[in-house]
Amino acid sequence: MRTVFHFLAVLVVVSLFPLGARAAPGPETPPPTGPERAARFYVELAVSDGAQAAALSKLIPEWAETLEAGATRVILTQAEIDHLRSLGYTLTVIGPAPDLPAVWPACYNRLNDLYAWLQTYAAAHPNFIELIDYGDSWCKQQGGCTTTGGQTVPGFDLWVVRVTNESAAGPKQGRFFVDGGIHAREIPTPELAKSFIEMLVDGYGVDPDTTWLLDQREVYVVLTSNPDGRYLTEMGVTPPFNGNPWYWRKNGNNGVPGSSACSWPPSSSSQYGIDLNRNHIFKWDSEGHSTYVCDEDYRGPAAGSEPEIQAYENFVRSIIPDQRGPNDNDPAPLTTTGFLINLHNYARTILVPWGWTTNPAPNAAQLQAIAAKMGTYNGYPWQNALYSVSGNTRDWAYGELGIPAYVIELDGNAFFTPCSSLPGIINAMLPALKYAARISDLPYQRVFGPDARNVTATPAAVNAGASFNLTAQINDTQNGNQAIAAAEYYLVPRGAPPPGAPGTGAAMAPADGSFNSTIENVQATVSTTGLGRGRYLALVRGKDVGNNWGPFFSQQVQVNCFFADMNCNGQVDVSDISVTVQGVQQFWSNGYFNYIYDVNSNGVGDGTLNIIDVQLVAGYFGPVN
């Protein structure tokens, strides 16, 4: 459970004996709702067990995901507080909560702005970004749809962004898929997904680890997997409503019988549509959903009935193979490849499969270890669901494909997290997402291998043929806490094929003379003899006594020689001219800029590649003086 943070010095405490868990279905279950701008309060709920959390999720359905994740801090109106008290629940009113925003918060992109950014950013970075239209929203399939109040929802394409260095030699090893916005009102999640894309692309050539990741991994990012729902969330601030953003959770499907009986304008407890995070085909008919169309967790008329979920599942299947058996207790093999994260807010928790049952998953040890490791990057605890939820994303991805799959509930104190808090939440999450991509080739193995920390090359730039000192700390304290047994390195150019199998690299020696501790400083003297001009990546990984090899961590090294002598063999020849032509052609075809071919001003460069660079290299044909 989350630590109680006292927003006010004075607490208003009301202690009543709870009447126990209750789960009455149907439209009468939620408490009375007042005006959207009614005064709101931070409330700490006393939740004794999963059954009581499940019962509360029916009474205050907008906080269902929060309660499932084990969090107990919610925001309620006075009417909701009074209703829970009347039912005998114990709660503590902490103090006033911020009003819902009366306009769209300035730090959050509107849906149309997000989609416009995707197109512009992809066009500006063709070597790193591929936009894939993986399906249509429900309203798009209908040719547009009309709300109960007569407003039009045009419908939208479903976009996934493939982020990788298209110029790398490949084959790529490891695919990581992350999506935001499946619950439309959880508006921080698309902003995090956008920032993750920017971090990866902007980091190439600047951050060694990001450079290596884009050379060796494919990362797939969905800003919002529920664009119709996001459009409806934003509708609350538009004419004729001109109010606050709506707490819209579900998709835009109003074609299910009974949808017209749902509230319009919508309330947090009554809205049409299908909860996409209850519509996946895996365990769709298990416990943990509603069959009433206006409820927030309405599962839909059939398993996988919604086009957004059909497209989601089909696309993920196209990039990650099925690696688990058909039975509930079949574990996925340790050779499983792939990784999936489904972003939500807010509960500051990593939710681990299973969700459809409170029983542990067959790969519980690996799944929990990965969640705990991600928590070392973002500070989040991990949690199994307190009560059953059916048809959810993480269960589908793990249950069908066998891959590690998680819900990460972002930190925060509201669905519309205040703008002052958003940058910190995003910055805390980016390292965890980067780690998921790092181990996505063999996640169930990599998580138990040691980290290679503080990888350093001294000096960071050397003349061709010279040597540099490579050091690192091999640390297993967060990955099983076993003694270190070995460390190795590879020195590769950017975009090189994947390194060899574990144990085939050049050995690094323990600085103290022997491997016998969970933390070992290692070193190696690395020669650059035979290397051409350019920036190289020194990739380092370690092994513990359990024979677990960890993932690569990297550092950049610059190798210098005469600027027109690309292969540093002492003369400018046809091969130097040829590789410069290839570099210019690559820049023209996909925008990939390799600085070593930018030789204007005696190798200083002018920031672009063209025929002049080829002519300059050719002009030095012959021995280098």
Secondary-structure map:
Elements: E1 12-14, E2 40-45, H1 50-59, H2 64-68, E3 73-77, H3 78-86, E4 91-96, H4 111-124, E5 129-136, H5 138-141, E6 145-146, E7 152-153, E8 157-163, E9 175-179, H6 188-203, H7 208-216, E10 218-222, H8 227-235, H9 307-319, E11 339-345, E12 349-352, H10 364-378, E13 382-384, H11 393-401, E14 405-410, H12 422-438, H13 443-446, E15 451-458, E16 461-463, E17 467-475, E18 484-493, E19 506-507, E20 509-510, E21 519-527, E22 534-544, E23 553-560, E24 571-572, H14 574-590, H15 600-603, H16 611-619, E25 622-623
Parallel strand pairs: 9-10, 9-11, 11-14, 12-13, 16-23
Antiparallel strand pairs: 1-4, 2-3, 2-4, 5-8, 6-7, 8-10, 12-14, 15-17, 17-21, 18-19, 18-22, 20-21, 22-23, 24-25
Question: Mind explaining what this structure looks like?
Answer:
The chain is α+β, with helices and mostly antiparallel strands. The strands form 6 sheets. The chain has an 8-stranded mixed sheet with strand order 5-8-10-9-11-14-12-13, sandwiched between helices. A 5-stranded mixed sheet has the order 16-23-22-18-19, with helices on one face. Strands 1-4-2-3 form a 4-stranded antiparallel sheet, with helices on one face. α6 packs across α12 and α10 crosses α12. The protein is globular and about 90 Å long. It starts with 11 loop residues before the first strand and ends with a strand.
